[in-house]
Design goal:
The chain is α+β, with helices and mostly antiparallel strands. Helix content is about 65%, strand content about 15%. The strands form two sheets. A four-stranded antiparallel sheet has the order 2-3-1-6, sandwiched between helices. Strands 4-5 form a two-stranded antiparallel sheet.
């Protein structure tokens, strides 16, 4: 009986020792594997594009250095992504601007102007609004181009674009259609008021003097004015009518 009791006590002690050993091994393994699993999860998330993912820095020595390194890498990647996104946004905005604006004068180009004219025509059709289209064509531009070169001609166009802007309302649309041709869309404007604006532009250009090197030039502008209303048709019709009116104005001096 005493031998059996001794054997049972020994087995109990052995089992208790094994249980304690297994528990300690589980705790130690958990302490080791949990940070590694955290690192694995964080790296996987970062690889999927979640650059705001971070690792809890709860370890020391080599594992802690690895955790700090992963966090530093994620922070650096997030900053680089932000910078890259800013560059992409700037490039996109620049492309959008270039697609709708004239590179020389900064005014909107023909394509964008025609789209705005179409919207104005739609408003005239639906809401009965009245607008006016002015077609502007320079009179002595070819002389300056031929005598002083295209650089001088480009500078003249830039200066005249600034001159045309003077006195315009915020909702008015000024565009360079190409060459020495400009267009002005006066929204919610009567024909009589538009004639006054066109005459003011013509007078400003007539008083304007263009200086290039040692030479001074006077220029002129002819303006065709067309009402935009419910019966105006499509944008091409209105532009053609304004071009024809401008030709008549130029022919009459």
């Amino acid at each position: 009986r005493s031998q059996r009791e001794a054997i049972l006590r020994s087995l109990a002690i052995l089992l208790a020792g094994l249980a304690v050993s297994l528990y300690l091994a589980w705790r130690i393994g958990r302490q080791i594997t949990r940070p590694i699993l955290g690192l694995t999860h964080a790296v996987s998330r970062i690889g999927e594009g979640h650059l705001d993912e971070r690792v809890a820095q709860d370890s020391n020595a080599e594992l802690g250095m690895l955790q700090r390194g992963v966090n530093h890498m994620a922070t650096h990647l997030e900053a680089m992504q932000g910078q890259m996104q800013e560059r992409i946004d700037l490039a996109t905005a620049r492309l959008v601007y270039q697609a709708s604006h004239d590179a020389l004068t900064g005014l909107i180009n023909r394509r964008e102007f025609e789209q705005r004219l179409e919207r104005a025509l739609a408003g005239a059709q639906v809401q009965g609004r009245e607008h006016v289209l002015c077609f502007l064509d320079l009179d002595q531009f070819k002389i300056i181009n031929d005598t002083c070169g295209h650089v001088a001609g480009d500078e003249l166009l830039r200066q005249l674009a600034l001159l045309f802007r003077n006195g315009l309302r915020e909702r008015d649309t000024l565009a360079r259609l190409g060459g020495d041709e400009f267009a002005l869309l006066l929204e919610n404007c009567t024909l009589n008021a538009a004639l006054g604006i066109a005459e003011a532009i013509r007078s400003d250009v007539q008083r304007f003097r263009f200086k290039w090197q040692e030479r001074i030039f006077s220029v002129g502008v002819s303006v065709g004015v067309v009402a935009v209303h419910r019966g105006s048709g499509v944008a091409d019709d209105v532009l053609a009518a304004a071009d024809a009116a401008c030709y008549v104005a130029k022919d009459r001096g």
